[in-house]
Fold these 4 entries.
Entry 1:
Amino acid sequence: MAAFIEENVDLDAVLELAEPCSVPETEVIQSLGTDLKIGVAWDPAFCFYYRDMFDSFGDNGAEVVFFSPMEGEVPDVDGIYLGGGYPELYAEVLENSETTRKLKGLRLTACLFTQNAAVFSISAELTSR
């Protein structure tokens, strides 16, 4: 591969065209200093997350508590975060889960964060009954 690139790509021209990138300045947000507990769904239905989200929760004083909606778990937390994943593949399990029944009662007392449209439609379904 290296030999092919050396023979067919003008690396000096590529480097000349490349410009140093600049990162725009961002405003530093002060930590909220809270002692919130955020429940994060973690099982085959909800398994796609970015590590920086967990870091952000922790940086702002929140404790992350993992739970499995497929197993019927609902932790004692201040908010729920349903990440991305494949909830549509586990719709029947989630529909019959104790978590689903308990989350219906949380809609007025806790935050419900979602990461993608598929999860959003499920959460909307959960809170509309």
Note: The chain is about 35% helix and 20% strand.
Entry 2:
Amino acid sequence: MRKLGIALILLVVIGIAGTHLLENWLSQRIPEILNEQEDRDYDLLIENINIHLLQSKVDLHGIRLVPLKDSVNTEVSGSLRDISMSGVDLMKVIFDKKLEISELKIKEPSLRLIQKNKKGTAQESSMAFQLLFQDIISRGRSRILFLKMAMLNFLGMWIAWLELGNSPI
């Protein structure tokens, strides 16, 4: 009976240690997956990552967008307060090095659009933001996208909106 108790305690300790090691490894691996595409336009620099294994959820905090390519007409820079990914397929992250999620929430993006060409059109400006979000979304597979409380600087004016809800991708 005593040996069974020791074995159970040992099993629990190994399980907790294994979970902690896996979370640490995933905290390093996920930023690598997010920034490994050769044709991406932006690097995502992540300040803090929280992994919730039992909930299949990953929270990224303090994300800074770093442009990699010099655009001729427009440039978008800024930060995202949080990105929350739920329904993360951890087996694909571990074995296939792919990020597949059910839901992606981008919270409080603060973005600045710089038009290098003074004769730039509103369509070019809109396209710059579309390409930015396309670049972020293309780093994995997601079924639902949320965007909450956006702050944009466009031609020196701060534009804010709150969009709640979801849209299938």
Note: Residues 1 and 7 are 10 Å apart (CA to CA).
Entry 3:
Amino acid sequence: MADAQGKLDKKMRGLANPSLLIINEMGYLNLSNTVAIIYLQVTSRRYENSSIILT
């Protein structure tokens, strides 16, 4: 589990860096609780610092 968590942390840092993050076709997905939490973490890390386009 620690290895998976390390990979998730690295990916989260990568998603926080770009000046613009485009998340496409979000409305077509049924999100599990885990994915919804990760999505909220990404958006909260980016809030007030960089832009997100959500389609």
Note: The two ends are 32 Å apart (CA to CA).
Entry 4:
Amino acid sequence: MELTTDATPEHEASDTIAHKRAETTTVNEVAENPLPTTKSHRVDLEPAYRVTDPARGTTAGHGKAFMLYEGQVIGESKEPAFDAARWLLKRGLALPSDRLTTYRNGMPCVFTTVGRSAALTLEERTNGGLKIRAYREFPADRREKAEGQK
């Protein structure tokens, strides 16, 4: 009579099959509960020029852009990719992992993710340059004062 141990090739094969069945179960569970898909969001930018003196042709608002999402104007900004991302997140229209592309004159100009853009802002330096830094929301009382001054 021949004795077999747990290390026989037949036993190893059955362990491998059981392991593959466990892997298959995991794959099936994932298939039943798929991860959220990443969406792409398009924000079109239009120059936000306002003529202040028609006789001289001078303008105000240079550098700002109107932001349009699905044909709707969502705001005006000097940093539209960052502000549009915050707008999308605040309204629950996008996940942080979603892609955001801004377009000027029908041409793509900024490619990023919503979460990354929402976390950033521009800071003007005293020497005239710009610096990208982490976004901090204004406290409610300062925001209300700023909106009242517009």
Note: The longest helix spans residues 9-32.
